[in-house]
């Protein structure tokens, strides 16, 4: 009974996740619940929309040129790779999935090519990825400095930063609700900050970003907690971008934009529609095959396959998985693979019945004796998909992710769900 309640609850949650953002019934509008929750002190927020890759929805294409003139030739390749890794970290913090960052050498010129699916605002992308975000804390010997030049650098910089995050309010110098950037220092940075604030009580401690004065609050007392707040005329977006840049760190090499463009979807809605039709045709053929070969048991397996599709699509929204055409192909392939385990189980059940076993005993033995084959075949598929994910990039990784999720979910539905349905109807 508890398993039945669990499965019913799971199906209900999947339906909620997959429903449109709003449904109008007469004069009543039903809204989809938001997916905002915390697990082990980790806040999770999802918009519950399908995320499409660059080939299906288009996005932004940027080409940067790296200045390697001040880098030794022996260190040039490692510096370019470090810059590419830094850009990739910034993209991940920006929340863009299925992005592509690759290097290119044109003669003596080193270039970085960045593709961002779904990002339409080129200027925002350029500002977030290319900004240096050099953070400095500067002190002054005067209680009333008259110019920025009156401040002198300390040994506390962005290199001593542990994490930066956006917050609203929380400081007496801020208007309530105004966005700011809260920063936390490393243990060494916290010691430096404590020493600096202790010797500057009653004086302003200036925060400079890229040599521009952001704020200069008066130090009221020594601050030993290793935390500070950067406040100023921030919007939510500018505060978020600053936090991204500070967390990612300074770029190892100076870069400049040499090409920028919005690129359209190369495949788009027509390919999505064709993929959907192919999936439906494949699903119908699987249904007919299972019913023709296994009768009522095949019908139950088909119902488990529907649950498999609901769970998989829900996970695509919750993870979230960016769907490229290759990823959709991986999902359609996994639908066919999802019934493999049921076929093995049902064939073992047929053998047990031919040997004169009662129906209930044949069912339990069928699951038990088919498990080793099911486990080995799925483990080998998982290993192959994991290798594709590890060594692949872009669409190949998208294919691998959907295939891995499909295999894991199919194990659950073909073993647990199908067994529960069979026990309901063949328990006696």
From TrEMBL:
Gene Ontology biological-process annotations: intracellular protein transmembrane transport; protein targeting; protein transport by the Sec complex
InterPro entries: Acrflvin-R, SecD, SecD/SecF_arch_bac, SecD/SecF_CS, SecD_1st, SecD_SecF_C, SecD_SecF_C_bact, SecDF_P1_head
GO CC, one annotated term: plasma membrane
Keyword Electron transport applies: no
Chief site of localization: membrane
Membrane topology: Multi-pass membrane protein
Domain of life: Bacteria
UniProt entry keywords in alphabetical sequence: Cell membrane, Membrane, Protein transport, Translocation, Transmembrane, Transmembrane helix, Transport
Transmembrane spans: 272-292, 299-319, 325-346, 399-422
Residue ranges of every copy of the SecDF P1 head subdomain domain listed in the record: 155-252
MF GO annotations: protein-transporting ATPase activity
Domain Protein translocase subunit SecDF P1: residue ranges: 83-141
Stretches assigned to the Protein export membrane protein SecD/SecF C-terminal domain: 255-423
Compartments reported by the entry: Cell membrane
Presence of the UniProt keyword Acetylation in the record: no
Assembly and oligomerization: Forms a complex with SecF. Part of the essential Sec protein translocation apparatus which comprises SecA, SecYEG and auxiliary proteins SecDF. Other proteins may also be involved.
Family to which this protein belongs: Belongs to the SecD/SecF family. SecD subfamily.
PANTHER family referenced in this protein's UniProt entry, alphabetically: PROTEIN TRANSLOCASE SUBUNIT SECD (PTHR30081:SF1), PROTEIN-EXPORT MEMBRANE PROTEIN SEC (PTHR30081)
Function recorded in the entry: Part of the Sec protein translocase complex. Interacts with the SecYEG preprotein conducting channel. SecDF uses the proton motive force (PMF) to complete protein translocation after the ATP-dependent function of SecA.
Record protein name field: Protein translocase subunit SecD
Source organism of this protein record: Candidatus Amesbacteria bacterium RIFCSPHIGHO2_01_FULL_48_32b
């Amino acid at each position: 009974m508890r398993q039945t309640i669990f499965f019913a609850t799971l199906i209900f949650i999947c339906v909620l996740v997959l429903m449109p953002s709003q449904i109008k019934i007469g004069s009543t509008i039903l809204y989809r619940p938001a997916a905002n929750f915390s697990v082990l002190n980790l806040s999770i927020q999802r918009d519950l929309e399908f995320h499409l890759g660059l080939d299906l929805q288009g996005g932004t294409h940027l080409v940067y040129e790296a200045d390697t003139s001040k880098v030794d030739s022996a260190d040039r390749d490692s510096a370019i790779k470090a810059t590419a890794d830094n850009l990739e970290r910034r993209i991940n913090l920006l929340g863009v999935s299925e992005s592509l960052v690759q290097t290119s050498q044109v003669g003596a010129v080193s270039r970085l090519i960045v593709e961002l699916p779904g990002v339409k605002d080129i200027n925002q992308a350029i500002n977030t990825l290319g900004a240096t975000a050099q953070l400095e804390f500067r002190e002054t010997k005067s209680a009333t400095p008259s110019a920025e030049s009156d401040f002198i650098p300390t040994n506390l910089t962005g290199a001593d930063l542990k994490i930066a995050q956006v917050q609203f309010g929380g400081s007496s110098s801020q208007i309530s609700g105004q966005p700011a950037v809260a920063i936390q220092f490393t243990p060494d940075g916290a010691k430096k900050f404590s020493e600096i604030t202790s010797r500057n009580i009653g004086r302003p401690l200036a925060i400079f970003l890229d040599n521009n004065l952001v704020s200069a609050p008066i130090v009221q007392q020594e601050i030993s907690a290793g935390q500070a707040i950067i406040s100023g005329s921030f919007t939510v977006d500018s505060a978020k971008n600053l936090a991204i840049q500070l967390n990612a760190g300074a770029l190892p090499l100076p870069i400049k934009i040499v090409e920028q463009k919005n690129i359209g979807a190369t495949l788009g809605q027509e390919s999505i529609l064709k993929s959907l039709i192919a999936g439906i045709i494949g699903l119908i053929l699987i249904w007919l095959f299972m019913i023709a070969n296994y009768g009522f048991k095949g019908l139950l397996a088909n119902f488990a396959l529907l649950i498999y599709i609901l769970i998989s699509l829900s996970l695509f929204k919750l993870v979230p998985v960016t769907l490229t055409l290759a990823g959709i192909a991986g999902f359609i392939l996994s639908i066919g693979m999802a019934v493999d385990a049921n076929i093995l189980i049902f064939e073992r059940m047929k053998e047990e019945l031919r040997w004169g076993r009662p129906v209930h005993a044949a069912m339990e033995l069928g699951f038990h004796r088919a498990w080793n084959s099911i486990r080995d075949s799925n483990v080998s598929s998982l290993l192959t998909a994991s290798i594709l994910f590890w060594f692949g990039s872009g669409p190949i990784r998208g294919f691998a992710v959907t295939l891995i999720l499909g295999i894991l979910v199919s194990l659950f539905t073909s073993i647990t769900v199908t067994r529960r349905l069979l026990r309901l109807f063949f328990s006696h």
